[in-house]
Design brief:
With 509 residues, this protein is an alpha/beta fold. It folds into three domains: 2-185, 3-Layer(aba) Sandwich (Rossmann fold), CATH 3.40.50; 199-382, HUPs (Rossmann fold); 401-496, GMP Synthetase, Chain A, domain 3, CATH 3.30.300.10. It contains 15 helices and 18 strands. Strands 2-1-3-4-9-8-7-5-6 form a nine-stranded mixed β-sheet, sandwiched between helices. It has a five-stranded parallel β-sheet with strand order 12-11-10-13-14, with helices on both faces. Strands 15, 16, 17 and 18 form a four-stranded mixed β-sheet that branches. Helix 5 packs across helix 12 (365-374) and helix 14 packs antiparallel against helix 15 (474-487). The protein is globular, with a radius of gyration of 27 Å. The two termini are 43 Å apart. The structure holds xanthosine-5'-monophosphate.
């Protein structure tokens, strides 16, 4: 296990990703973690992340000297290296010129970190401060033209520092350097796999829950599905999943979830048909924020009512992922929560006196997918694109009515069908149809028509924070448009959305 101490760098999750890619488990912890807790975690090595602060400024997080006296190998990256130097009696100075971008790295001394790396390589720099004086026992192992102290080590105490970022792709040798740290310096083994994770998670759930009962909100998305499967393995019948049909789901969605979870996986799932209730509440509502609020509130109400019908429930399970856990406790205002989640049944545990079970809280999204595969979830669920909690309600601009829902469902099903058939589904972050509150004139046969407009939206993205419109082949777009106009009654025009985020958003509402 590797402990990563988080000084607030935008790259700290990337460090964790790099470590886990090597099949080594790691955990990110805040900088005020005490040496006692560190020892109790028994890490093989510690990585101090970069961060935006300047070491001597008020309130800057500091590395305690005690960390370096545990005898555990430490790798400080950027700010992490500076905090190590400052804690051990060296000196850091602010330089006038920030160094940002590629730099030529010259390796001056053999070092276990640099084994297998050419003497001349490039690295990615992003710092304002630099080290002026090294603490006793350290030597310089690499330099760049503008930063003499670019890499340092105290071999005897197994303390290492890099001024540049080995975790980013712009440092070509960085992966190897991290590997060297994990295996040659810390002696880690490659034992972190989703199979071992599943085994441990099942045992942990059993010990946390004892003979209690658990409920979970199943949405049909990847996270709640994988969480459900893990809990089902651990608890069998003592897990009850609740699926709320809110009337704004896509074509075939509720039936698909029912077939998979109830029939195929034989899970204890309660389907709540709340379609009428949601549609009644949405009647006449046009404002996007009001739609979201109505759906969010009603979801909690329906879920809670159903949950109360299950006797002796003591736990609520959620598919919370690691990035949310890290961000929610970041002391440095890390990127704020990505998604305005309506599935957030946040207030529920307190009101119903439920304890939380979050079996995925240490996993990243791609690990959840691997775990899903390990647990036997079908590929098309594992690779499902994200779908917003308020569903089609935020893709019908204007009022949500049964008639307009039916038009959008038809159009969306055709789009999904064609995108999958052309092999684009997994390459896209999301692809969907939107129904506009406009009509336009067309001609069908010899008849003038005056009908609805469908907009197609397809975007590529890494994390939904930014997105670009997908350059789908014209003939694919042509096929989708053609089929929608021919097969969906009430549509006579299809347009393609070519806006990126920012300044637009992915969803239209
Ligand atoms: P926007 O439209 O803000 O969307 O660019 C970013 C991502 O978030 C999804 N999204 C939601 N997901 N509940 C969710 O669970 C919501 O209320 C919600 N609103 C947007 C959206 O689909 C995209 O992936």
């Amino acid at each position: 296990m590797i402990l990563i101490i988080d000084y607030g760098s935008q790259y700290n999750q990337l460090i964790a990703r790099r470590v886990r890619e090597q099949h080594v488990y790691c955990q990110i912890e805040p900088p005020d973690i005490t040496p006692e807790i560190i020892r109790s975690l028994r890490p093989e090595g510690i990585i101090l992340s970069g961060g935006p602060a300047s070491i001597y400024e008020a309130g800057a997080p500091k590395a305690s000297r005690a960390i370096f006296e545990t005898g555990i190998p430490v790798l400080g990256i950027c700010y992490g290296m500076q905090s190590m130097v400052a804690a051990l009696g060296g000196e850091v100075i602010g330089v006038r010129k920030r160094e940002y971008g590629f730099a030529q790295l010259h390796i001056r001394e053999p070092s276990p970190l640099f084994s297998g790396i050419a003497e001349e390589t490039t690295c990615w720099m992003s710092h304002g401060d630099s080290i002026r004086r090294l603490p006793a026992g350290f030597r310089i192992t690499a330099s760049t033209p503008s930063t003499e102290i670019a890499a340092i080590e105290n071999q005897e105490q197994r303390l290492y520092g890099l001024q540049f970022h080995p975790e980013v792709a712009h440092t070509p040798g960085g992966k190897k350097m991290l590997e060297n740290f994990l295996f040659a310096v810390c002696g880690c083994r490659r034992s972190w796999t989703m199979r071992s994770f599943a085994r441990e998670a099942v045992a942990e759930i059993r010990s946390q829950v004892g003979d209690g009962r658990v409920i979970l909100g199943l949405s049909g998305g990847v996270d709640s599905s994988v969480a459900a499967l893990l809990l089902h393995q651990a608890l069998g019948e003592r897990l009850t999943a609740i699926f709320v049909d809110n009337g704004v789901l896509r074509q075939g969605e509720a039936e698909g979830v029912r077939a998979l979870f109830r029939r195929h996986l034989q899970m204890n799932v309660r389907f709540v048909n709340a379609r009428m209730q949601f549609l009644a509440a949405l009647k006449g509502v046009v404002d996007p924020e009001r739609k979201r609020k109505i759906i969010g509130r009603l979801f909690i109400e329906v879920f809670e009512k159903e949950a109360r019908r299950i006797a002796e429930v003591a736990y609520l399970a959620q598919g919370t992922l690691y990035p949310d856990v890290i961000e929610s406790r970041s002391a440095f205002g890390g990127p704020s929560a990505v998604i305005k989640s309506h599935h957030n049944v946040g207030g529920l545990p307190k009101r119903m006196k439920l304890k939380l079970v979050e079996p995925l809280r240490h996993l990243f999204k791609d690990e959840v997918r691997l775990l899903g595969k390990e647990l036997g979830l079908p590929d098309d669920l594992i690779w499902r694109q994200p779908f917003p909690g308020p569903g089609l309600a935020v893709r019908i601009i204007g009022e949500v009515t049964p008639g307009r829902l039916s038009i959008l469902r038809g159009a969306d099903a055709i789009l999904q069908d064609e995108i999958r058939a052309a092999g684009h589904y997994r390459k896209l972050w999301q692809s969907f149809a939107v129904l506009l509150p406009l009509k336009s004139v067309g001609i069908m046969g010899d008849q003038r028509t005056y009908e609805h407009i469908i907009a197609l939206r397809a975007v590529t993205s890494e994390d939904a924070m930014t997105a670009d419109w997908a350059r789908l082949p014209h003939d694919l777009l042509g096929r989708i448009g053609n089929r929608i106009i021919n097969e969906v009654r009430g549509v006579n025009r299809v347009v393609y959305d070519i806006s990126s985020k920012p300044p637009s958003t992915i969803e239209w509402e």
